[in-house]
Structure formats: C-alpha cells, structure tokens
Amino acid sequence: MSTTVGPALEPAIVKLDPASRRIKWVTAFTLMTLPAIGFAAALYLLWTGQVTAVDWTLFGVMYAVHMAGITIGFHRYLAHKSFKTSRFFEGALMIAGSMGGQGPIMFWVTTHRRHHRFSDHEGDPHSPNLHGPGVLGKLRGLWHAHMPWMLSDETSRWTVFAPDVLRDRRLMFYHRTYLYWLALGLLIPTVVGLVVGGSLMAGFTAFVFGGLARIFVANQAAWCVGSISHMWGGRPFDNGDRSANNWPVAVFTFGEGLQNNHHAFPGSYKHAVRAWEPDLSGWVLTTLGKVRVVWDLRQPDKATIAARRRRSHARTPQA
Ligand SMILES: [Zn+2]
Ligand SMILES: [Zn+2]
Questions:
Q1: Number of domains, the chain
Q2: Percent of the chain at pLDDT exceeding 70
Q3: Nearest ligand to residue 268 Cα
Q4: Which residues surround ligand 1, an ion (CB under 5 A)?
Q5: Within a domain: residue 155?
Q6: Disulfide check for 20: which of 16, 73, 254, 289 has CB 3.0–4.6 Å away?
Q7: Does residue 85 sit in helix, strand or coil?
Q8: Transmembrane stretches, by residue range (predicted)?
Q9: Is residue 285 part of a domain?
C-alpha cells in the first residue's frame, strides 16, 4: 500500500502499490471467471444427460452451506456482530463462508463495513448509483456494482474498518487459511461424488456441480445484493441511500436482498421486519437461538421500527 485517495476519504481507503494491485486483480479475475467456466461445463453436462441425483443434491447442500456461511457467518456475525456464539460454531461459520470464495474474511468485512459507511456515496466500494445519469449510467452502475468493483486498485484499511477482527487471533487464523477452506469446499463434493458414484466421471460431475457451478450461481445471487438491491425494490425506510428490499434477490440470498431494512437496522440479526418478508438466515438464527447454539441476538423492538418508519414517511411522503 502506498498513497491515500482524496483527503475526504483518508485514511479509510488507500491506493494499492503496483505489485499488490496485480495480485488483487488476478485473484478477483479468477474468482469472476473460473466458476463461470464451471457453470458452462455444468450446462454441457446437463445438455448431454450426464448429471445424476447425487450432483443435484451436492449442488443444493453446498449452496446452502455456502450461503449460510456468507450471510450468517461473514455478514451477520462477523461484520455486524448481531449475535454471539461458541468458538466451535464460529469456526464452522468461518469455514463455510470461506468455501464461498468471496475472499478472505478481512477483505469481506472491511469491504462490507465500508459499504455501510459510505452507502451509495463516494467511497462505497460497490454502489450502482455513482456512474452517471440516464439508462446508460444505470447499466454501467449495475455492471460495476455486480462484479468489476473487485478489480479496483483501492483497498479498505484494516485498522479503520476491522480493528476488532485484526486483534482476534482465532478469527485471523481463518483469514490466513482461507485458500485451504476454499479448496475443501471443492474437495468435499468431489470425494462424495467419487465414493457414491464409484467412477472418475462421477467425481468430476460432482466437482462441477457441488464446486464450481455452485460457487458461480451462489455468488451471482450474492452480488445481486450489491447491484440490484441498491437499485430496484421497496423502500419503507429513508436511509439516505438507494438500498431497496428486492424479494427475488432475498429468496436466493437467504434474506440479504432486503437491503433497505438492513441499512435501516444494520445491527439486527434479522433482515425481515415483517414476518412474511423472505429471510431464511434470520429464521435459521431464530431457531438456533432457541436451542442456544447462538445467543444475545440483537434486533430492534417494534416501537423502534414503527418510529423509524414514521420518520421516513414524514421525510419522503412518496415512499
Ligand atoms: Zn447495501
Ligand atoms: Zn451489512
């Protein structure tokens, strides 16, 4: 790291030196393209009728593990500290999240907390709303917020955005060993496919479905949270940004698409503020709370939500 960006954002965001920039670019480019190749291979296997029930099962189970790791582990636990849990379950969440291939925990947490601090204003790492007016500006913004933001030559300073994680030796262990867990997430479906299917081809199709194609589909859904859910959807709360509750995105991302609710109450373990809003990770956490796997679940009470809603309506009568 070398120079800082504009004085308004200093010292939160820094420009990478050329060597670090190259490493970041290659890593991000690989993350964006390799799973896409796997997805294309999955389509070919489907087209040629070589996909088994085992492959579909592995895809579904690994998708659930991946999404729970990111949404419950990286997001609601690590970035927002919206509940507490044992070191054992914390480890399971960090490993599951790392299998998602969205980067090691320090990258994820610092990027995400920066997103909340600057939401849809200069400094937001992945806003779709800062790329000019008109339809073209919207399209450019959507594309940028979906994936190419990862190719940026800036980085979020760890000491500013995540000093708490930086001080935690056990959490930093999961940061340092990220690539091993990512590899494990590819190895598990491959081994299951080999053992159950009993052939190299069965191992390969399981690797494609439970590994690469699963990463592709789950991450495309997850990145819709930053792109689509900051452009289209309901806005019951005036958060001073463009965050929106987008139900289709929320269904595929276990509740993360309810961005307007989340930006209004970022510390809440639930993203739904009404019982019928789709928030699978919130429902899972409520259940885990009942059996004491997690505890000290934070959420605003009904009066706080109602007051916030009234204030928002007063400010933006059309919302
Ligand atoms: Zn957001
Ligand atoms: Zn958040």
A1: 1
A2: 96
A3: 2
A4: 243, 259
A5: yes
A6: 16
A7: strand
A8: 25-47, 59-78, 178-198
A9: yes
